[in-house]
Amino acid sequence: MSRVTLVTAALVAALVVAVLVSATTGQLQIPLDEVLGSLAQAWNRAVGGAGLHWLELPVLATPQHPAAEATLWLIRFPRVVLTVLVGAALAAAGAVMQGVFRNPLAEPGIVGVSSGAAVGACAVIVFGWSFAGPLTAAVMAFVGGLIATFVVYGSSRAGGRTEVVTLVLTGIAVNAVGGAAIALLTFLGTTQQREQIVFWQLGSLNGSRWQDVVIVLPLAVAGIVACVALARPLDLLALGERQAEHLGVRVERVRITAIVVVAVLTSAAVAMCGIIGFVGLVVPHLMRMVLGPAHRALVLTSALGGAVLLSAADLLARTAVPYAELPIGMLTALVGGPFFFWLLRRARRSAGGWA
């Protein structure tokens, strides 16, 4: 059995465990057999309605608490599903961004893509735009993230190369401008809108609904499929731009396509959950250290790893403090910040210094 298969199987098992533990844990503890029984009942209703009774599963237990069924299907399951989708989207976006920039420091949060998306989403909160219905926040987050990505990309390119220092400094500048724009929007908003923006910026999956899942699901799935489709061009691009062009890769087209895909994935996550940083930095690096640089396996395992990491972080955010919830963006930053320092020093040593 190959290493990719083993790692994928381990990540799938970890994700199943994280999802089930998240579903059972909360202010109302629901036993695992009752959670599985509720899922089996829903599955049986679906396949029974389609006339496929031979696919029905045995129901070993049913929820006993009068509020357990509603708690599972109105609060926990939508939150768990949204957590998995957001973690997978952010990690896959990070893997592609590092590949297209050929830089291990590239990540949607660090280079300002998340900030650009946040500005778009905050503008929707303050100005009450609804031109695209429930997709308005996602559309404006996409536009903001796309603009930020192109600014960073255009500024960090010089002489056909992407400069590491310029990339990071441009990301800092874009984050600063995005922070200032969000501060201005906070100033312009009403008291209720200010509170909404402040808590939203901290990153949270509290209040997740099935409507949010319906919006994020197609964007995340389409984005991850597009990331996998970009795997071979990114592998060739890792050899160098000139070599990739000799092998038939249209480098600029691949870069622009990858930037749009990253903006879609990031905006889908940011629009619903706020800014959750470092998932797209930490997970692809860990997967690359284990599996190597081949992007097809890297993107898929990063998506699984991002889902596992964010599910664990969300579980910790919900349960670390009784009757309160920690901002999940704070928890991911506590893990990702030190990792970024280590990565920066490692990259500096391997480059022999920045100057």
TrEMBL record:
Pfam families: FecCD. The keyword Magnesium does not apply. Keywords: Cell membrane, Membrane, Transmembrane, Transmembrane helix, Transport. PANTHER family: ABC TRANSPORTER PERMEASE PROTEIN MJ0876-RELATED (PTHR30472:SF25), FERRIC ENTEROBACTIN TRANSPORT SYSTEM PERMEASE PROTEIN (PTHR30472). The keyword 4Fe-4S does not apply. It is found in: Cell membrane. Coiled coil: none annotated. GO terms for biological process: siderophore-iron import into cell. The lineage of its organism: Bacteria, Bacillati, Actinomycetota, Actinomycetes, Micrococcales. It is a multi-pass membrane protein. This is Iron ABC transporter permease. InterPro entries: ABC_BtuC-like, ABC_transptr_permease_BtuC. Belongs to the binding-protein-dependent transport system permease family. FecCD subfamily. GO terms for cellular component: plasma membrane. GO terms for molecular function: transmembrane transporter activity. The chain crosses the membrane at residues 80-97, 109-129, 135-153, 165-190, 210-234, 254-283, 323-344. Its main location: membrane.
